[in-house]
Write a structure and sequence with these properties.
mainly alpha; two-stranded antiparallel ribbon; 18 helices; 63% helix; 1% strand; elongated
Length: 413
């Protein structure tokens, strides 16, 4: 007795034959035989109709088969071309064509050819993962993603494969994908400590510090002896505390939380030393102390820094005055106007709208404007270079003075 699947197939065949009948007695007999054999009646058993259309289905399959055949023919032609090259190079020397030794060497060459054209061919899920791990060690992260993705196709419920791919995505700075893969890994294995660690790393680089702390904490909870997880948790907690401190800072207080790493930078220290030697800065510190003593609260530093502007005499709109030698006098030393234009047109500045806006601000308001951007590490790194270049003096004179130092000034890198 035909089961329900067979009946549905027979129904589709008889329905297709009815469209071709056209008073053909042979087709009529064929439809009767099929209907009797499978116990169906296309006019009554409409519940068997699942909308299966044989003609488009066969056309689609034929197109796939044709495409596969074309690709197979092309691949075979390339293989034979490869074999021919090996023959010319003497790869088959010493063996008779058609012998077992010949075919053994032929199969070895074929595997090499397939690996070159399809590195995933013939590999199991574990082998694909191992290849992905090798690519990670070699810092070939895009290739690693490819191998892990193929492994996932083979075993879509393997938590390790998703976790490993998350690591590759993190190295590629595709943090959203890393988060997605880490979370997918955890849906498959909720106690997978490494997946929590990978999730924490991706969230950390997205500046989601609280979520990163939570993820790292869970990783440490699951693997309390893992020192890497502990160190990552500590870093995330420190970053979270720093972010919270900056968010809760009094009005007018610039965020200096990112300045620590710059204190080891010789160019930054040189710029800061020049800054500290200026009388305007001493006046600002004195004003700061007086405000603290009089009001017993933090003064508005933004307003205080605004006093560190260009000397009077600038053009309308606050633009600084330019001397006949092309030098712009500032509280921190003279700036050569050509240096400003050179920096504005350098690829590092010109191709970044953020830095273009900063340079315009500096040009209009003076170097004190740089302090407004102290909370951005990327900007601070560039500001250090910019300030070094702006106050660059010829050998024989330090910025703002007439010293005897013959050391050339630092160059913009």
């Amino acid at each position: 007795m035909a089961d329900n699947v067979d009946k549905r197939i027979a129904y589709a065949v008889v329905s297709w034959l009815k469209t071709k009948q056209a008073d053909d007695e042979g087709l009529e007999v064929a439809m009767q035989c099929i209907s009797e054999s499978f116990g169906i009646n296309v006019d009554k058993d409409t519940s068997l109709d699942i909308g299966l259309q044989l003609t488009p289905l066969f056309k689609e399959q034929m197109a796939k088969t044709q495409s596969s055949g074309d690709n197979s023919d092309a691949s075979e032609a390339k293989l034979q071309e490869f074999i021919s090259i090996l023959k010319n190079k003497g790869y088959f020397n010493g063996v008779q064509e058609g012998s077992p030794q010949y075919w053994e060497k032929y199969e070895t060459a074929k595997r090499k050819f397939q690996q070159r054209n399809d590195p995933y061919a013939g590999l199991s899920a574990e082998q694909l993962k191992a290849q992905g791990n090798n690519k990670m060690v070699q810092h070939q992260y895009k290739e690693a993603v490819g191998f892990y993705s193929k492994a996932i196709e083979c075993e879509p419920t393997n938590a390790i494969f998703y976790c490993n791919r998350a690591a590759a995505y993190t190295h590629l700075k595709e943090y959203a994908k890393a988060v997605e893969d880490s979370e997918r890994s955890l849906t498959l294995d909720s106690n997978y400590s490494k997946a929590y660690s990978r999730l924490g790393t991706a969230l950390f680089y997205q500046d989601h510090y609280q979520k990163a702390v939570d993820a790292y904490a869970r990783a440490v909870e699951l693997d309390p002896d893992n020192e890497v997880y502990k160190a990552d948790l500590k870093s995330a907690e420190a970053k979270l505390a720093s972010a919270e401190q900056a968010k809760n800072a009094p009005a007018g207080m610039p965020d200096f939380s990112q300045l620590g790493s710059f204190m080891q930078n010789p160019e930054f220290l040189n710029m800061a030393n020049s800054f500290l030697q200026q009388p305007q800065f001493a006046n600002m510190v004195s004003s700061f102390a007086q405000n603290m003593k009089a009001n017993n609260q933090m003064p508005d530093l933004a307003q205080m820094f605004s006093s560190l502007q260009m000397p009077e005499g600038g053009a309308e709109g606050g633009a600084p005055a330019v001397g006949p030698d092309g030098e712009i006098p500032t509280p921190f030393g003279n700036i050569n106007q050509s240096h400003i234009e050179e920096l504005r047109n350098s690829p590092e500045i010109r191709d970044n709208p953020k830095f273009q806006a900063i340079m315009e601000d500096v040009k209009a308001s003076g170097p004190a404007a740089m302090l407004k951007y102290a909370s951005d590490p990327e900007v601070m790194s560039t500001i250090t270079k910019v300030a070094t270049k702006l106050f660059q003096q010829p050998p024989g004179g330090a910025p703002g003075g007439g010293g005897d130092d013959d050391t050339p000034p630092p160059q913009l890198t």
